[in-house]
Design goal:
The chain is mostly helical. The protein contains twelve helices and no strands.
Length: 253
């Protein structure tokens, strides 16, 4: 069966990424325009739609690791992207570029745990490391991911996606487990309603279930995202300043 036929019977990686980009953009714009965790039903709905973004990126990162021809180049590209993403994300939401100056939450973008997730999968696949060494390294990576958007669970979801590739039920179950921990911490330390809202990641499961394993016809999608991500955040930052002045609009700012 060729790629075109597969695309007619499911969602390609490119189609999933477009859904994620749209959901992410809506979520970020709403966060900038309506800060401080408002509870209007339509704002909550927009944020629920926004929860579709991260799970798609986590899943596709694990898929990208499996399909890449050069994992070291893949890691290097994500590392550079994480550095650029740090400044774009923090500017968008009024968070200090210097980590931990104001908080331990949301100190950098979700791209950081995406990078760490690929590093983690590479280490777990290493034949040179012993099991106890791999365990220690995963704990270290989780600690490094903690201050980012979606925190340590983002890393752990990627690792469990990668290690359970081919077992979709197990992948989704562990995603819900790790995000459940994240939602609990969010509810306790930040906002109860918005903590519960994080569990809307479950809405992504039917979309991921329909992933057909194909990249899609547009080969430049990954480069499009690399450019789109910082540019849309920079525009969000300008919108934030125009509406509210140079102040933080979410926890961490």
């Amino acid at each position: 069966m060729n790629e075109l036929e597969n695309n007619n019977k499911g969602l390609s990686g490119n189609q999933l990424k477009i859904i994620a980009i749209c959901a992410m953009t809506l979520d970020h714009v709403i966060s900038v325009v309506y800060p401080n965790y408002p509870t209007d039903w339509w704002i909550i709905l927009c944020h629920i739609i926004g929860r579709l973004a991260a799970p798609i990126f986590w899943y596709m990162i694990a898929e990208g690791y499996h399909h890449t021809r050069n994992v070291k180049k893949y890691m290097a590209r994500l590392f550079v992207f994480a550095i650029v993403g740090h400044f774009a994300y923090n500017f968008a939401f009024g968070i200090s570029f210097v980590p931990f100056k104001t908080s331990c939450f949301n100190q950098t973008s979700v791209i950081w745990p995406l990078f760490l997730g690929v590093v983690g999968l590479w280490l777990l696949d290493s034949q040179k490391l012993k099991a106890w060494q791999k365990t220690i390294l995963v704990f270290l990576l989780a600690a490094l991911a903690f201050p980012s958007d979606w925190s340590s669970p983002a890393l752990l979801v990627i690792l469990y996606h990668g290690r359970n590739r081919g077992n979709f039920k197990k992948q989704m179950l562990w995603m819900l487990v790790w995000i459940g921990f994240y939602a609990l911490v969010y509810a306790i330390f930040i906002n109860p309603l918005y903590g519960l809202l994080q569990m809307a990641v479950a809405l992504t499961i039917p979309l991921l279930k329909n992933y057909n394993g194909q990249r899609g016809s547009f080969k430049g999608m990954k480069y499009f995202f690399y450019f789109y991500y910082p540019i849309h955040l920079a525009l969000c930052g300008l919108l934030r300043i125009a509406l509210h002045g140079n102040v933080g609009v979410m926890i961490g700012g």
